[in-house]
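Section 5.1 Outputs to date
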Amino acid sequence: MKVFGITGSSGSGKTTLLDALIPRFVAAGLRVNAIKHTHHGFDPDTPGKDSWRMREAGCRNVVLVARAI
């Protein structure tokens, strides 16, 4: 299993980078999953949002992690 992380400020292009990388990994025969941190309430099926974009790019699973309330 290979694991790597991408971090950066909001708006710095992290999801855009993943939009390009994920399909390449999938095309190479890799299984891709993602863990995404969120600071607020979320709906993972909202078109255009990061978690939706990662699934559209080919991630098998996208896990959203938030602070417990």
